[in-house]
Amino acid sequence: MTARRWLVLLAAVLAAALTARLGFWQLDRAAQKLALQAAIDGQAHKPALGNADLAGADLHRRVELRGTWVPERTVWLDNRPMDGRAGFYVVTPLRLAGRADAILVQRGWAPRHAADRTQLPPLATPAGEVDVQGRLAASPSRLYDLGAGQAGAIRQNLDPAAFAQETGLALLPMTVVQTAAGSDDALLRNWPAPDFGLHKHYGYAFQWFALCALILILYVWFQLVRPRLRGRPS
């Protein structure tokens, strides 16, 4: 082989090895996401935690809490569609009974006014102690946001730590996504299932493996098969 052919062979081998490695990396990422999904499903089958069990609790664990709503601190997270309709996720702090702290509760979904997006729908928030069933999450639903933190009732995102400083509430560093419907409101709770992007990882893996195969096929054709067909030594 000439130096040029050795160089082409080296380039083909390196490119094929790199694309194959990237394909296996995407498969590994998909396996990690599957393991995470299995862990979340496992948390859902464990007994629900109460007010006294929140310290060090794992995310996605079921909870059954008792406390008092803080309705004046309700936040409406905008641009949250549900069942094909535009609306808000309603988040209200819950002062935990028997404790000095509170926790944010993503209570449910409410529709947005068709003509005036600043007009909030009516919301029934009972006084006195209530029971809330749900699952733990790191924070309320988040969207990509280029701007700085917002204030007011309608916001794009809500950071628990910043909201605690803003309100003076002793908020736990977690959120409850309410799952059981209450008799006190008409909020929807058809929460979307977590999207782990498995199809994306499998799609990327297929593309990398296909590119690897294409590199090898092109090398074999142009460096081995085609010269032989033309009667030249390879």
Explain how this protein is built.
Strand 3 and strand 4 form a beta hairpin. The protein has helices spanning 3-44, 160-167, 198-229; strands at 62-69, 75-77, 87-96, 102-111, 129-137, 154-155, 171-178. By secondary structure, it is α+β, with helices and mostly antiparallel strands. A five-stranded mixed barrel has the order 1-3-4-7-5. The protein folds into two domains: 3-39 and 197-229; 55-178, no CATH class. It is elongated and about 90 Å long. The protein is 35% helix and 21% strand. It contains three helices and seven strands, in the order αββββββαβα. The mean pLDDT is 90. Helix 1 (3-44) packs antiparallel against helix 3.
Task: Name some characteristics of this structure.
single chain, 234 residues, alpha+beta, 2 domains, five-stranded mixed beta barrel, 3 helices, Surf1/Shy1, membrane, transmembrane, transmembrane helix, cell membrane
Describe the protein's topology.
Blueprint: H1 3-44, E1 62-69, E2 75-77, E3 87-96, E4 102-111, E5 129-137, E6 154-155, H2 160-167, E7 171-178, H3 198-229
Parallel strand pairs: 2-6, 4-7
Antiparallel strand pairs: 1-3, 1-5, 2-3, 3-4, 5-7
Shape assignment: elongated
Q: For the largest sheet, list the strands in their spatial order.
A: 1-3-4-7-5
Outline the low-pLDDT stretches.
none
Characterize the largest beta sheet: strand count, sense, and whether it forms a barrel.
5 strands, mixed, barrel
What is the helix tally? 3
Give the radius of gyration: 27 Å
Kindly state the number of beta strands: 7
Report the sheet-strand fraction. Answer: 15-25%
Write the element-wise H/E pattern from the N-terminal end onward: HEEEEEEHEH
- How much helix is in the residues? 25-40%
Q: End-to-end span in angstroms?
A: 8 Å
Whole-number total of structural domains: 2
Content-based structural category: alpha+beta
Determine the mean pLDDT.
90
